Each structure stands twice: as structure tokens, then as C-alpha cells.
């Protein structure tokens, strides 16, 4: 579920004094923390994942889940012998746990990447860095996604 | 018509790390949402983006439906030599797009 | 909190007799200022209240997806169209000069057609009259691209106060802005004049200025026109939207431009 326009159902509980309407979201089942774990295992196998070395940056309060600025950096000397091979991004509650995978190498100079992603709901997002020595490092962050107040409907 | 916007420094010092920005026009239809007729709109996304620097791949991204519409990706590379950076995107329904930029390394 | 805003709450909280009293206070307190008037020094662009990352997206042309539309618009500007085989550039030459400031003073009254036209309407007028081409439908990608390209030439400029011949249109727009409508029985003014800065669900209520259109809206994942945004609000109010291109929208646009007079154009902006 990546478009929040059409898959959330809204429940209007009344226009209050300020003219505000409140929306509650009911979403179809999608990715779950378990599905995310399975997806991670699919990519990295049985390898141990440590926390640290990668830093994921997403604003803690997202204005619209359709377009979420995400950036990341990984601590690495980025030499021919010691570099970041890839970074995998996963989420818990979109319809699918995979978000994006970046492949890089020593020629990157530094592991500093940004992209825009979709988040269907408030959830945890995890970034896993794969190093040239076969080790895996992760950073998990919690993101709150606010919903647009007025929906346009299908268009 | 403009489909792609890439930003590569025209000149760079040898050995310096440069930032590359890419923006491509694409709906990234995730394949989960119903259209006006109630039927699920089929998935139509970019699945792969690559960047080659004088023929050698320096960056690649595998994209899933959770990448936002009009994908914007920035990354870095070392300015090793003068030449050409070539970008390619491929996706569902035979989507392909390419772009390139020249760089002078001093 | 302004007097009008306070009384708005009293009105809702009050019992009927107290309500009647409050109405008296309202008419007294609000006499010098019309309800639709945010004090000029309190006006703020939607840009000022959006998050750091959304601002960054607007600040950098290479990060702003609307730039893709701009580039299309630039190409279309020089493309020959219609039976006349003329391009915009054939008459208007360099848009950077000829279109500078135009979007900051539109909608404008077209004396030949005897009606106000917004930028989209003006582009279509050029197409039918001078290029002898079909008008482009609203929200068509080419029309958005051309509109964005024209509006871009006014970026950073102050919105011009509408001239006298637009006053009836501005007044008509104000009447629509202040009229309660839809199943929620709301007016535009109740959110955007009386309650800006507060929250509607999780989102901040903006003042609702037109200074960035057409713009890339994260919700839309696309560039859209001011009319699309207005229709979006009407749907939110559970009101029946006007047909895109209708005179009601043009009047609302004219009123919003009057309301935002002096504010800086940001087109094509980014909004959540």
C-alpha cells in the first residue's frame, strides 16, 4: 500500500468547534515486522547483524507518506579492501517489506546516499549496510506519518 | 520531452568525492491501489537504476514499489578521470531511459 | 487569537441565547476588518510552515520534481502548434522577458472575451485564437508544463493587487470563499482565515495562499493547478466541486491573489 489516497477508509467523527474533522485509517494487511524479518533474511542469509556504522535519517514526523526524504551514511574508509558493498532498506508496514537496495563500491568515495520513499503508515524503517568483509550493520528508526486532512478521492 | 534531470559537476579535482543527483519522471505505480473502476492498477515501476563512469559501474539501485513517484536519488563517486557518466533506468512494461553527462577532471 | 477567532469558538460553545449575544459582539468587533482579512503582517506562505525536507525540495531546482514539468514547458514554448503553425515564442519571444511578472498579476480581465482568465485560460485563449489549435484540457500535462513555465518567470516577484476592472470578480470570489457549503457546511474562510496554524487531523492548516501554483504536491505525486487544489478542498468539505475551468474557480483564484497581494511568487513550489 503506497498510495494513501485510495486504500484508506476514513471515518468522520464529526466537525468540531474548530471545523476540524478527524480521520482514522483502516488499512489492509501488508508487511508486518515478521515479514520484514523474513525479507531481511532473504537478502543477508543467516549472517549476524550488528547495530551501528550506518545512520539512517528520515524526519521523525513525515508530512506526507507519498514522498518521504530519506538519507543515509555509512562509516567506512571506502578503500579497495574495506568498503561498503550495499545498503538495503526495509519497512514494517507497507504492502511489501523491501524499499530499495543500493549497490556501491570503493569508487563511491563515501557512502552517503539520499532518495525519496513511500511510507503507508507510522512504522519502523531499517537500513542494513553490507560491508566488503561480509559483516552487516543496521540502524532502525521510528517514523510518524501524518495523513493529509482532506482527501481528493480517486483522480 | 524532459524525462530526466541529472546534476553532475562539470569540472572536478582529481580524487575529489563528487555528489551526483538524479531525478527521473515516472509514476512508480505501486500495483496495490485500486483505480476509479475498483480494479487494482497494475504495477508500473522502475526496478533498476545504474551509473557507469567511463564504462565501469559505480552505483546501482534496485527499486521496489516503496520508492516515491519521480524517483530522486543522490550518491557520490570519486572524480577519477575526465570522461562520461552514463545513467540507465529500466522498469516494468519495457521502460528504459538513459542519460549522460561529461565531466572534466583536473 | 484575533477577536473573530475567539468569537468563532464562543459561537460553537454557546447555548442559543448566548449565541445571539455573541453574534452581536461579532458584528461589533469585526466591523473594521472583514472576516476574510488576515492582517497583512500575519500572512505566511505555506512554505513557512512546511517541514525542513519539503522546504529543501523546493529550494533546490534539481531536487524539485516540478523542474521536470518546467523543462517540458520550456520545450513547448518553442514548439509550433495548430493550423497557424505558430509557437508561443513566435509572438512572445523570450519568456524570461515577456512573461516576467505575468503570473503575479493573473487572473486578469480579458476585454475581448469580456471575462477574467487565469494563466491556463490565457494559454488556451492563445491556442484557439493565435495558434488555431485545440484548447488543452485542465490538468493536461502540457497545460501544466506551460503554466509552470510561465509562472516560473515571476518567481520572487510580489503578487500585484488586482486592477479595478477585476474588483467584481474578486468580490465574487470572496463570496464563494465565505459561503458555507457541502455536507460539512463549511466555508473556505472557516479553515483558512479563522483557524490557520491549527491542525486538521495531523496536518497544519495553511492560510491557503496561491503564490506557488502550479506546484508539486507530495499528496498528488505530481504537479497540479490551483483549480485542482480548490476542487480538492471542496471535496474535503463534502461539497460538489465546480467543473475545472469554470468561472467560479477563476473568481476564487482572483480573490486569493488579492488576499495574497504583495506576497512573493514561488512557482513552481512544493507542498505536502
Features:
heterotrimer; B: 106 residues; mainly beta; Immunoglobulin-like; 5-stranded mixed sheet; 3-stranded antiparallel sheet; 8 strands; elongated; C: 272 residues; mainly alpha; Cytochrome Bc1 Complex, Chain D, domain 2; 3 domains; 3-stranded mixed sheet; 13 helices; 7% strand
CATH superfamily of chain B: Immunoglobulins
Task: Give the overall shape of chain C, derived from the CA principal axes.
Answer: globular
Biggest pleated sheet of chain B? 5 strands, mixed
Per CATH, the superfamily of the largest domain in chain C is Cytochrome c-like domain
- The percent range for helix content of chain B is under 10%
State the strand order across the main sheet of chain C: 6-5-7
Layout: helices, strands, pairs:
The complex is a heterotrimer of chains A (155), B (106) and C (272).
Chain A: H1 4-7, H2 33-44, E1 49-51, E2 54-57, E3 61-62, E4 68-74, E5 84-91, E6 98-103, E7 111-117, E8 123-131, E9 136-145
Parallel strand pairs in A: 1-9, 3-9
Antiparallel strand pairs in A: 2-4, 4-7, 5-6, 5-8, 8-9
Chain B: E1 4-7, E2 11-12, E3 17-24, E4 46-53, E5 56-63, E6 72-78, E7 83-91, E8 96-105
Chain C: H1 3-13, H2 16-29, H3 46-49, H4 52-59, H5 66-77, H6 88-92, H7 95-98, E1 108-110, E2 115-117, H8 119-129, H9 141-152, H10 167-178, H11 188-192, E3 199-200, E4 203-204, E5 215-217, E6 222-224, H12 226-236, H13 247-259, E7 270-271
Parallel strand pairs in C: 5-7
Antiparallel strand pairs in C: 1-2, 3-4, 5-6
Helix pairs in contact in C: 1-2, 5-9, 8-9, 10-13
Describe this structure in words.
- The complex is a heterotrimer of chains A (155), B (106) and C (272).
- Chain A has 155 residues and is mainly beta.
- Helices cover 10% and strands 36% of the residues of chain A.
- In chain A, strands 1, 3, 5, 6, 8 and 9 form a six-stranded mixed β-sheet that branches. Chain A has a three-stranded antiparallel β-sheet with strand order 2-4-7, with no helix packed on it.
- In chain A, strand 8 and strand 9 form a beta hairpin.
- The longest helix of chain A is centred in the N-terminal third of the chain and has 12 residues.
- Chain B is mainly β and 106 residues long.
- Chain B contains no helices and eight strands.
- In chain B, the strands form two sheets. In chain B, strands 2-8-7-4-5 form a five-stranded mixed β-sheet, with no helix packed on it. A three-stranded antiparallel β-sheet of chain B has the order 1-3-6, with no helix packed on it.
- In chain B, strand 7 and strand 8 form a beta hairpin.
- Chain B is elongated.
- The mean pLDDT of chain B is 96.
- Chain C is mainly alpha-helical.
- Chain C folds into three domains: 33 residues; 131 residues, Cytochrome Bc1 Complex, Chain D, domain 2 (Orthogonal Bundle); 81 residues, Cytochrome Bc1 Complex, Chain D, domain 2, CATH 1.10.760.10.
- Chain C has a three-stranded mixed β-sheet with strand order 6-5-7.
- The longest helix of chain C is centred in the N-terminal third of the chain and has 14 residues.
- The radius of gyration of chain C is 20 Å and the shape is globular.
- The chains are: A mainly beta (155), B mainly beta (106), C mainly alpha (272).
